[in-house]
Structures are given as structure tokens and as C-alpha cells.
Amino acid sequence: MIEAIKAMTCACCQVAKALESNDLADALKKAWAPRIEVFLQDMFNFGFDFEAGTYNEKAIAAIVERHQESLTDHFIAETEDIVEEYAGRFYDRGLAQFLEDMGYAKSAKAHVQKDIYDDLAEVTGSTRANCMRTVKRWHRKTQGKYFDRFIQIEIERVKSKLDSGELTRATLNKIGRDYKTFCEANGYWNSVSGFNAQTAEVFASVDSMYETNVTHYRIEAVVDKLTCDACIHMNGTEFSISKAMEIKADLLVRGSDELAEAYPFPSRHTIAEQYPDPADSPYAIPPFHPSCRCRLVPTRYESFREPKPEVPVAPPPIPDIPVPNVTVTPTPPPLPSPIPLDEEPR
After folding, report:
1. Which of its termini does the chain have fewer beta carbons within 10 Å around, N or C?
2. Whole-prediction pTM value?
3. How far is CA 93 from CA 98, 247, 279, in A?
């Protein structure tokens, strides 16, 4: 049984995850594209002149002011429920996959299976909602504010490039193309969707392991030519489930910016120098970067949860009936049998 548990996986199929993550990214892009298209039309018509290498400062300020609400508040209002819904889907899928991998879905002990499902349904009812609210809050507070956090800063960088001196036509065209690509943000929404999907699934894995008495797990990376040095360094490292629960609880109360400061992505090039023993690192749960493919695999456990004992139902107590105060006359001893007539007395 121990060897079987060591071989179990608690993350869903990479293909299925990619499909649903892409669905979320597509939904965000669908809401973003018409808004940013109108913004770019105004910027290219009245703000930047990439053929001449000039820009109109006042026009740019007016365009930013005009589109800011559409690209922040209106966009977030349109998409935050979509993000929340997908977070719930990712959580449910991670939970279901964990149970299947642990063997409960095929268990011959129906009473154990039912007990596990009942307990998980009760416990994860609130943790699923917490996960959904957390991802929605990240989207509303930080992730959805791409215009404020990135596009406005990029405007200043483009100005600096145009002010740097004489530029060739090819260079100016490239600056314009890069700026358009940056504003369209296709890569950004892909990264956000993938990060939120894996975060929700990891939350489900952690909750499931905790509820099924798993005490330790290991980080398992997909090792191929695309695997980064950080994931390779963390691959196979074992952590306690209590550490994961502590980090998860902290993530639930932090915003995306706070999260980035408290739990920054590991440096792909220096993590081995910073933490020669990866078990000493703070990176107990993935994702370690956008598009991270690491997952959690149970390694040690206390015991499978026993079925809840049936409490015997005691019979109802016999009520105390008051006895009336009656004098009882003692019963006299029985009379001797009569002497038969045909017998002489002795």
C-alpha cells in the first residue's frame, strides 16, 4: 500500500489543464481585445507617430484618461465572475483527480470511500469558496489592472526610446509593433490564466492531502528540455503538509502584489546557490513561475481514515411510576391437603 501511495499523483492531466487554462485565457482576451483596439487606434492616430519618431504629450494624456475606466474598472467588472468560476472548476478538478489517484473512486471498501467523500465535501465546501474568492480578488486588485500597472509605464518607455535620438525607419516600425503587441497582452493573459489554474489545483491537492491524513509530499517536476533550473532543483524535495497548509492560508489573505513580495518566484539561475538544500527553501508549493508544470505527490501518511463508528442508540428510559401507599396483608400459609376418607389417620 505504501508503495502504491508513493506512486500516486495528485494533479490532473497536463493536456486537460492546458485546455481549460486556455479557455480562461481566451475569455479574458475576448473581453480585452475590443477595448484595447480602440485605445490603440487613438494612440496611433493622435498620440504616437512612429513614422516620424514623434509623439503628442497632451494627446497621450487625454487618451489615457479617456480609456482608463474602460480598460480597468469596466474590464474587471466584465471578467471577475469568469475568473471566479474557472477557479472553482480548477479546484474541483484537482480534488476529483486527487481522490481518483488515491484509489478512493475504485475502493472496494464502500464505507471508507463514502466517509472520505462526505468529509471532503464538507471541508472543501468552504476552502473551495475561499480559493474562488482569492483568485477573484487577485484579478480585481492586481492581475486585471494591466493597463494601470504596465501599459502606462510602457508609454513612458516608448517616449524615452523616441527621445533617444535619430532612429531608422526599421527601428521605429519595430518600436510600434512591439508596443502594439505589449498592449494586446496575449502572453500576459496566458500567464495569468495558467498561474490561477495551477494555484487552484494546488489548493485542492493540499486540502485533499490534509483531509486524507497525508503528512508529507514531494515536488514532482516534468523534466524535459523545457524544464527550468528552478523546477529541476526543487524536483523530488519533500515537505510536510503542515507547511503547505500554512503557506496556503497565508496566500488566501494576500493580494497579488503582496504575494509577489512575500513569495517571489525563485530565481532560475541562483536558486541552487541560495538554497543548496531545497528543503530549506520557502518554495514548498508550486507554481514557481508562470506555466510551471510541477505538482504534488503524497509520500507519507498516518493511516487511512477509519469509518465513523456507529453510536448505539440506547433504549428510552423507563419512567418512574409512583407506587401508592397501600398496606399489604401477608399471605397465609397454604392449608394441608384434606385426608382421604378411605385412609385412617396416622
Report:
1. C
2. 0.75
3. 8, 21, 28
